[in-house]
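Practice problem: Peptide hydrolase
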Amino acid sequence: MRSIIPFILTAATCSLGATSSANEFNELSLRTIKFSPYHVERLPLAAIERLRTAEPLPRPLTSESLNDIRASLSDISSLTGSTISDEAIEQLQGRFQRKLWGPGYIDVTDSVAAGFEDSSQAPLIAPVATPEYPTPDPSAHPELEPMLKMVNSTELREYVTHLSTAYRTRYYRHPHAREPTLWIEAQFASWLGVNQTTVVENKFNQPNIIGRIEPKSRNSSAPIIILGAHLDSTSQIPWVAPGADDDASGLSVVMAIMRILKANNYQGNYAIEAHAYAGEEGGLLGSDALARSYKDQGKEVRGMLEFEMVGYQPPTSTNKGKSSTITVLADPVPGMTSHMLKVVEAYVPTAERRSVNCGYGCSDHYSFFGEGYPVVCLASYGPNDKYLNPNYHAMSDTADKLDFEKMTDFVRAGLAWILFISSHPSVMLSLPILLLAFSSTLSVQAAPAAGFEDLSVRAIQFASGHVERLPLAAIERLRTANPLPRPLTPESFIAARKSLADISILTASVISDEAIDRLQGHFQRKIWGPGYVDVTDLSEDLSRRSLTRRVDAPAYPAPDPSAQPELESMFEMINSSELKSLNAREPAEWIRSQFASWLGQEQVRLAENSFNQPNVVGRIEAKSGDPNAPIVILGAHLDSTSQTPMIEAPGADDDASGVAVVMSIMRILKANNYKGTYAIEAHAYAGEEGGYQPATATNAGKSSTITVLSDPVPQMSDYMAQIVQKYVPTAEQRSVPCGYGCSDHYSFYDQGYPVVCIASYGPNDSQLNPGYHTTNDTVEKLDFDKMSDFVRAGLAWVVEVTA
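Answer key — structure tokens:
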């Protein structure tokens, strides 16, 4: 019998070893991108980027617009020999300006067999069991009270500020992409200890970082509770991508939760891991690799909680009088969503609770869901929400636009969730899944970037399941192009292909209508994430693998703030200044250093990618001390992008804000010496690519807006919504869909892990950060006080699920 994987928040902890050259991520490298459970195609990286950053075309795309888009990629197609499908074009075109969550796809290049052919593809489906968590009961967890008192917006502000200002960008392909991961690692290590912080190298130069709290049993094989956020950022000019909200905000919540747990010496029945994922904006690259590694090594995950864009919290008509808005994403594991909604209701009763769909690959939790793990995601708003951060995926995604006080509700929800599910044994539904064993020491290896050159051809999978091979240069050009009117017409497709003619000649590539539709104008269309998954590195033959994962959430107990008194002291430690300070320096290395300073060097790891930006992972071991305990993951992506990614991409909101939340959560957990039943990992992901919290009619009087993405595991979204409701009751709580590959959690979802993602707003929300994926994604546009609600939610979630 294979073990059961109950749930994941964000990623896993293991050394993947950088075995591929960074050339796999050059402009013309072909990536295997999964756009939906049924559609995988190989696309040049350049085509993905060009489509995403292009001006959005009117929807629906017409035959003419599809042809125009293909014409705009003809240079890439000719260079790579790639073709792009209609679905790929639909997902990617103008995605940045369309404000769609996350990449909208999963880059599964590393999981695709070398001889994979599009004609042989089949749906990728994996059943996911939802643990039967008890109903959240605050009175049952008095240890949460001191933790909640440690939650503070200053901490969140410091994290987000550092992540979004210390580095011009955290974009996973940037030459300095690994720098923020070092800081995250240092933070985790400073709280958890060096031995509890793992650097998980990717094939690009940005590792994942994992921080771990051992279970009280010290059983290294104990199931894991994961808190996750991606550490990378992007914008229309990805070289300037502050990513304060996307996802420094989510990462800051994860960090705050872990710090508070550790400060309270908390250890639950399960290991607790905080994951900072690299390369989320590149197609959930870092989280997908981690999720696959966890599955391959047989790790059991009790649940994964993803934090995605939790800082942008505008006042709205529905969150008036609320402390924040917490949206629990409704998919991909409905049971996880349902339980999280109960946790929010029990522990953050002052928050507005919402639930909306996220969509395939909308964030890193989808990577774990894809491996059969139960996942849930918290955000301020979902992908299609009116109030989604308008600076999302823009250079204006800065910390000044985030509400760090409202973000504290996410820390509370995360703490409550972790304590609640960590303190209760789970009744897990039957599910054949091999769990991944945790390695406490991961070697940090230099990660060559072969396969990511401009003309490298990547296997790209779009939301429909369609996979095609596209030159990286074509992807980039389509994404950064001005969006064409939607729907794309035949003339539009022709124009798009013409724009790629030089790439097509050099790569001998042809781009499909779908690829053009997905990628063209992606950045200016303000679509979350890449809008596809790069499946180039998938090792298995996709002809025998299903793209559709059915991930059921663990049956978490109902969130109960009174049962988690240890959260009180943690909540008192939440501060917006911390979040703001985390938006500031070279990403991966700095993130690693921050994790290490909290968690200890041994608890922080850089996970190298095949591009030059590692993921950063900070870890708090389960109280059992078992290194193989299931993991709870907090994740956010550390990279950033924009229409000029190599020049300027601050990414303050996308996703320095998420990373800041993850970091703040981890710091608070560690400061409280918190250890739960599961290990807790904070992941800062490279290459993916919420602090933007505008005042809206629905969040007037609310402390923040927290959107829990409703997909890909609805149960995880429901449970996170409960966490937000219980622990951040003052927040406006929302839920919207995210969409395939929208952020790093989709990497874990794709591996069958249960995931959830929280953000300020979702991909299609009108309030989505207007600076998203632009050089305007800067710290001053974020509201760090409101971001603190995300730290609260994250702390509560962690404590609830790991207690």
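Discussion: Residues 1-21, 113-127, 427-448, 542-548 have pLDDT under 50 and may be disordered. Students who identified this feature from the tokens alone can consider the problem solved.
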